[in-house]
Specification:
By secondary structure, the protein is an alpha/beta fold. The chain has one domain: Alpha/Beta hydrolase fold, catalytic domain (Rossmann fold, 3-Layer(aba) Sandwich), CATH 3.40.50. It contains eight helices and ten strands. An eight-stranded mixed beta sheet has the order 1-2-4-3-5-6-9-10, sandwiched between helices. Strands 7-8 form a two-stranded antiparallel ribbon. Helix 7 links the parallel strand 9 and strand 10.
Amino acid sequence: MTDTPSILTRDDGPAIAYHHYQRKNSAPGVVFMSGFMSDMTGAKALAVDAWCREHDRSFLRFDYRGHGQSSGKFVDGTIGKWAEDAVFAIDRLTTGPQVLVGSSMGGWIMLLAALKLKHRVVGLLGLAAAPDFTEDLIHAEMEGEHRAQLERDGFITVPTDYGEDPYIITKDLIEDGRNNMLLKGSIELAMPVRLIQGQKDADVPWKTALRIQKQLASDDVEVTLVKDGDHRLSEPEDLDRLRATLERLIDRVSV
């Protein structure tokens, strides 16, 4: 497996780094979408990559603009722009039906991409999926001082347990997030959906998975709550669960 990504350049500038392989007679293919300030080299992305190679199935993983090996600055990104990157990559690089897998913020991007590509998406698998997190989990919990700073400076910095660098939360990110919120109305997706959520997740409340289930139009939605699971869901047993769930979902949607 090469570590050097291919590059897909958008007409409006950003260069999207990706790894993709196409297999004949392997529909549906699989697309992985990573989380906020994460990238396509994480444990879950690589676990899905390895599973697809083992099962001779087409697979795509990529970095949004401002993430990983793609071009652009993270602070210039928004939920809408990252969703555009996902739709662009799927449109340009994949053929036939696809199963989308999204981790954390990638679960939000996964839903937005599926709404744009309903004719191409046949199944969804979310891992600690976090739609609307910019409003419900960041802005709603901001202290007055942080809200004032966001208005004054256009950004704030927030410490994180997932790396040395703090998260940079911009006013554009918050405002654009409001334009892409999903949980206040019906999510008009009818395909099978599988959601895996840790009950010890300190970042995304486990009840978020139940909110997603409720708002989805699909009747085929299964939620797996992991009693001892954290936000990463990257322990060996978590990766085994991810692979097993993906395999069952693909069996469910394969034709």
